[in-house]
Amino acid sequence: MTFRTLHLNAFLMGVGHHEAAWRHPLTEPARLTDVRHYQQLARIAERGKLDSVFLADGLALHGDVRHNALGGLEPLTLLSALAAVTDHIGLIATVSTTYNEPFHVARKFASLDHISGGRAGWNIVTSAGEAEARNFGVERPAHADRYARATEFLEVVTELWDSWEDDAVVGDRRAGLYADTSKIHTLDHDGAHFRVRGPLNSSRPPQGHPLLVQAGSSEDGKEFAARHAEAVFTAQQTLAEGQEFYADLKGRLARYGRRPDQLLVLPGISPIIGSTEREALRLEKELEDLIIPAYGLAQLSTMVGIELTHDELDRPLPDISVETEGAQSRRKLVVDLARRENLTVRQLLGRLAGGRGHRVVAGTPERIADEIQVWFENGAADGFNIMPPVLPGGLADFVDHVVPELQIRGLFRTEYEGRTLRGNYGLARPASRHARIGDERLDPVVVS
Amino acid sequence: MTFRTLHLNAFLMGVGHHEAAWRHPLTEPARLTDVRHYQQLARIAERGKLDSVFLADGLALHGDVRHNALGGLEPLTLLSALAAVTDHIGLIATVSTTYNEPFHVARKFASLDHISGGRAGWNIVTSAGEAEARNFGVERPAHADRYARATEFLEVVTELWDSWEDDAVVGDRRAGLYADTSKIHTLDHDGAHFRVRGPLNSSRPPQGHPLLVQAGSSEDGKEFAARHAEAVFTAQQTLAEGQEFYADLKGRLARYGRRPDQLLVLPGISPIIGSTEREALRLEKELEDLIIPAYGLAQLSTMVGIELTHDELDRPLPDISVETEGAQSRRKLVVDLARRENLTVRQLLGRLAGGRGHRVVAGTPERIADEIQVWFENGAADGFNIMPPVLPGGLADFVDHVVPELQIRGLFRTEYEGRTLRGNYGLARPASRHARIGDERLDPVVVS
């Protein structure tokens, strides 16, 4: 067995993942739209040798902005500004396949990949929400339709990335030959959702294809991930659930001719860190005391699909069907959590406030490292999606105290191995579909 | 009459505006996709106290990539990376209204405006080309349809920018009130082209509205500019033509209730600079000698709408109708130029190679400054769109030699006056359509 190294992504969200983060004295909510805040976060993550930073996204104002610091910056424009002040860290942006055109998306990620020297990644989402549909003048598409569109979208995007072969640009000034047009290909794609001639108006991205990331945990989502994704963000509450998801997803790869190591599973974890257990629990309590129940109730009502009121705060969660398919994998997780731990609605709100269903672990750096190690070494994770409760402090604490512990244990890098996001994730650079087998110009890493 | 200051925009295009720039020893064509090249250009422009940098764009691979360095970076991602390394310079990106959705465009420019601290500008184009239509699976829309869509597009975008009032974010941690939702507005726009609910998921941009720029010179284009644009890029060959265009456009403003100083007219100029006239002419000749006639012939054929061959190189331009309306304003300019100066096709190619129909002036810094001054002081320009033949050298020469001459003459700033792009262009910050008259929070600059 080859040496396995842990992978760590910093999930950047405003001034913290805890829904009350903006009320805590450790944060400055005015920094929500301040690029210097995010630049500081990216630099902290890079100081910790993390693989990547990641920005979630939605195409509508989600949640109750009366009670939370919502409405930040657009991920792709923001990541370019982070690329400019960092050298190694990967840059992953969420972009929807439902409300975009493949030509634009291929081009923007190609551009970000060029700008960052091969550090771009795309978190592919299909935008389930009603509010998003209404900003684009359409009815909310059905789950299966969204995934059918996403599949064709991805075909077109990867074909656009391949439309210039790696050696298409010749740059022979004397002969006056800039590009060898026999190595620049039209697509003439004509499918159910898109007709795209191509080629892209940008040379092939440094990574060949920017990294493909996905986060859906529905049946369609897992199948899409097994076919296309190279990293998967997921919410798993217990080790057993994490192991089940990991085995399930890795087990699906073979049917697409892929090896298990070609997809990394990265569960979310919100680490509430203290130098003592008591200190960590105190921070957790401070944040819990700042929760506004009306905010959490509205979020939870949307998640479980029934309207919950203040009157129900101190009762158990009502019976809720979890047999639904589709966008409802988060519903099952929440209902299972409430039942397993016999939580009242108020207690459940406290558990969800930290990570919206992602696992929250409060403790010393050693304790956090233990949790990470157990999951990593027991078939539940290839790494983690780190969701600090408050930012920037929570990320700095992770980098300065948990990362060294992981390094001492030999689990995590002390220097970047690669020059690209793929390089650091240990993933190969895809060959162009137009590259000729045995072509002496073929990049060696492609065939490794 | 109040003091009028000249405005200067640096039009950044690959390694230079001359079509043979990539073959000249002064350039490095490999820098076409290197963000550091553009960062260097933005810093040079800022060193010269220029108002802004500007990136053109198309949504297809235009022109013959065998013979020119085409296929660079996407403007919005690139400008964010430039924002990160500059403090004052405005950042203007071209984005099409024909192949985009207003929600995305409003959001990306809001984001760039936040990231840059109020330096974003949008060059609004309607994408005339056949090749672009084919990358989005549609038939090329008619000229009038494109402008009708653009008008509605702009209504929606500006309404989205206004959807959060300037003081919507309260940020009261103690009370748990982040935003006053009575100051965040849905649009419920329902028009011929778009249905958009809103609000935007981003607070109001620092400039209120990022600067609106336009470049169409057709009848529809000029009318659109008169109604919406705050700066107009235009190609005018002679002082008389420049004066006519200037008077025409400024004369259209009153019918939209606008004053002449609310729109700046910025003709393009490609300055070929030498410390002596002889040196400038030598550089011009060097570039001309590197022209590949096949490239220019293909470009010119597209421009004039007939297929020109090598056999016609040393003959006058054939008779061509210039009575067409619509996207053909560039055709008229080219045909007029050939007739006025009695040029052969080969000579015309030489004249177009420098600036694709924009004026080319070769000479000493004083000579370039003279040209700028004459147009500025005689009703033909409020400033200029500077199109250096080679980059970065041509921009550095302009900044280091022409700008000081303009400063000595009292025509150009020696320090930035404003903190925003609007501030430097001398344009007011628009009040939100939801702002209440007499509201004590109303920004004073709005009512100036």
Automatic annotation (TrEMBL), chains A, B:
Is Flavoprotein found in the keyword set? yes
Q: Which Pfam families match?
A: Bac_luciferase
A single GO molecular function term of this UniProt record: monooxygenase activity
Record key words, sorted: Flavoprotein, FMN, Monooxygenase, Oxidoreductase
Q: Which residues does UniProt assign to the signal peptide?
A: none
For region Disordered, the annotated ranges are: 199-219
Family matches, as InterPro entries: Diverse_substr_monoxygenases, Luciferase-like_dom, Luciferase-like_sf, NTA_MOA
Q: Luciferase-like domain: from which residue to which, for each copy?
A: 29-380
Provide the binding site for FMN: 57, 94, 143, 147, 217-218
Q: Does the keyword Oxidoreductase apply?
A: yes
* Family note: Belongs to the NtaA/SnaA/DszA monooxygenase family.
**Would you tell me the protein name for this molecule?**
Monooxygenase
Its lineage opens with:
Bacteria, Bacillati, Actinomycetota, Actinomycetes, Streptosporangiales
